[in-house]
Specification:
The complex is a heterodimer of chains A (96) and B (484). Chain A has three helices and two strands. By secondary structure, chain A is mostly helical. Chain A has a domain of 39 residues: Orthogonal Bundle (Histone, subunit A), CATH 1.10.20. Chain A is flat and about 55 Å long. Chain B has 484 residues and is an alpha/beta fold. In chain B, 38% of the residues lie in helices and 13% in strands. The model of chain B has no long low-confidence stretch (mean pLDDT 97). Classes of the chains: A mainly alpha (96), B alpha/beta (484). Chains A and B meet through helix 1 and helix 2 of A and helix 9, helix 10, helix 11, helix 12 and helix 13 of B.
Chain lengths: 96, 484
């Protein structure tokens, strides 16, 4: 089933991804094509098959709860586009 | 022989005999990079001062009697691995200017083994692509024919190795990104078993599939590099807590009585006839060397591509949520509010293929479609893994073409994502199954290299290296070089 333009806009909003008009048109077409290809999987009966999230499974990997040195704050904040003292600076999240 | 032609194995020999210094070797490579990289564009960033400093330090240590597995060897690192103090962009605008405050474990291990880091190699943006054309900066060119792609996403690393712009390189492989460029450039590339090499500091694309591994001039160098980077890392809880064998000791040349499986599904439609002939000829050589060739069936092979292109984008869409312009990288400067900042930062920071995969993955995970796409693909992944398990019950390793064709032209597939994805048709099953594989050169068609894959079970890197080495000893493909 081909994707609609509204669906593409909805997915972009879920992913907080701005798209140009041209991208919306192109992705509507390309994603429909890729999804149509993916529907080949429906040829397989997987009713009795369990899903696999990871091929090589490491179970219950734990470690002692010991405090270890962190990265230096200055070096980490050096990459921030905007900072305020020892914080990352962002635009307001809650309206007044 | 010129210095840049040296393999890691030979360079170590001369360094150990004090017939060569790391500074001399590093200078020779840097000179070659300066001359040739403006044509090839293998590197996003070369760090000559840091490299020469590390080389001088290696020479000083050697003079004091120290020896290490890679002491003084100049290497290249794919730009998706964090390097402390050296900009790491993943080939993306969104990470422009990002200077990691720490080394990836792979990089830390190479440094600890004495390696000299020359710089960071080009990659498709966030390792998403099969041609290195998705780099936000520039495409890399295939040293065998500059109008062709080097493959991808580790195209910069593969091109650097074959053009002698480093002695060896590290790449990453999520769906074939080490093996496919290795085949296109005529070098050796190994994708380790999931968990064999730490992913700490490897910028995440698809966390259940990503592995870093070596690209090298020959199988011996590949084994040396793998030995240096493999092993358990407490910082990556998916890394395997298993001892690392001596991979070079596995290179005996003896494969008598080994059973090599040939999955019939990897031959047929879409496979270039010259590539098929080269693989069949390689099988003939393995047989002459004493291996038993067995036809096997892996019936779910045709479903690997759609499975991969649902699962990998799903994981990517979650992993790439972190690029929000807050902690590092690009931030859209004129946003109205925080939501506008997120949308525009990602709109202008990401390239077309990354956006396409974020969209695809978000859709596959979204309410109402999760069962139909994501869950379905996870179930088919189980079937694909079972195919490998069954085949490897009766065989020691599997033999298959690495790519359906030789290197294609730049621009040939960029407008058609599905055609580009089909490049990975022979490589991505292995990532879904979490197993190990190596691609080695096995011939040429129209002057362009062909690669053959040897696929092995979990932690069977010694087996695939042994099979690869026996073939390499019996042939001379490693001695062919592009004219530059």
């Amino acid at each position: 089933m081909p994707l609609s333009r509204e669906q593409v806009l909805h997915i972009a909003e879920l992913a907080k991804l701005g798209l140009s008009e041209e991208e919306v048109t192109r992705f509507t077409e390309q994603l429909s094509e890729i999804l149509a290809y993916a529907e080949r999987l429906n040829a397989l009966d997987t009713e009795a098959i369990s899903p696999m999230a990871q091929a090589i499974i490491q179970r219950n990997v734990t470690r002692e709860d010991v405090v270890q040195p962190s990265l230096p704050v200055e070096e980490v904040l050096a990459n921030a586009p905007q900072r305020h003292e020892n914080f990352f600076r962002v635009k307001p999240i809650l309206e007044e | 022989m010129e210095l840049h032609e040296l393999s890691i194995f030979l360079a170590l020999h001369y360094l150990r005999r004090r017939e060569l210094s790391s500074v001399e070797l590093t200078r020779a490579i840097l000179k070659r990079i300066k001359r040739l990289d403006p044509l090839i564009h293998a590197y996003l960033r070369v760090t000559p001062e840091l490299a020469l400093k590390a080389a001088a330090e290696a020479d000083r240590r050697r003079a004091q009697g120290e020896d290490l597995p890679l002491l003084g060897i100049p290497l290249a690192i794919k730009d998706v691995l964090c390097t402390k103090g050296i900009e790491t962009t993943c080939g993306s605008r969104i990470l422009h200017g990002f200077v990691p405050p720490y080394d990836a474990t792979v990089v830390a291990k190479l440094r600890a083994a004495g390696a000299v880091i020359l710089g960071k190699t080009n990659t498709d943006e966030f390792a998403m692509g099969s041609s290195t054309e998705n780099s936000a900066y520039f495409p890399t060119r295939n040293p065998w024919a500059l109008d062709r792609v080097p493959g991808g996403s580790s195209g910069g690393s593969a091109a650097a190795v074959v053009a002698d712009l480093c002695l060896g390189a590290i790449g990453t492989d999520t769906g074939g990104s080490i093996r496919q460029p290795a085949a296109f450039c005529g070098v050796v590339g190994l994708k380790p078993t999931y968990g064999r090499v730490s992913r700490y500091g490897l910028v995440a694309f698809a966390s259940s599939l990503d592995q870093a591994g070596p690209l090298a001039k020959n199988v011996t160098d590949c084994a040396i590099l793998l030995e240096a980077i493999a092993g358990y890392d407490p910082k990556d809880s998916t890394s395997a807590n298993l001892p690392v064998p001596s991979y070079t000791e596995a290179l005996t040349g003896d494969i008598k009585g080994m059973r090599l499986g040939v999955p019939k599904e990897y031959f047929g439609q879409g496979l270039q006839p010259e590539v098929e002939r080269a693989i069949l000829e390689a099988l003939r050589i393995w047989k002459l060397l004493g291996a038993e060739i067995i036809e096997v069936s892996m019936p779910h092979t045709e479903y690997a591509l759609p499975t991969y292109y649902l699962l990998a984008p799903a994981e990517a869409s979650a992993n790439l949520a972190r690029y929000d312009g807050v902690r590092y990288g690009y931030l859209y400067p004129e946003a109205q509010d925080i939501w506008d900042a997120y949308r525009k930062t990602r709109q202008f920071g990401f390239g077309a293929e990354v956006k396409r995969r974020i969209m695809l993955g978000t859709y596959a995970l979204s309410a109402g479609y999760y069962d139909a796409y994501y869950l379905k693909a996870q179930k088919v992944r189980t079937l694909i893994k079972q195919d490998f398990d069954r085949a490897l019950e009766v065989c020691d390793a599997l033999i298959a073409p690495t790519t359906p064709t030789v290197a294609f032209h730049l621009g040939e597939k960029v407008e058609d994502p599905l055609q580009m994805y089909l490049q990975d048709v022979f490589t991505l099953s292995l990532n879904l199954a979490g197993l190990c594989g190596i691609s080695i050169p096995c011939g040429f068609a129209d002057g362009l290299p062909i690669g053959v894959q040897i696929l092995g079970g979990a932690y069977q890197e010694e087996t695939i290296l042994r099979v690869a080495y026996a073939y390499e000893m019996a042939t001379d493909w490693q001695f062919y070089n592009p004219e530059l």
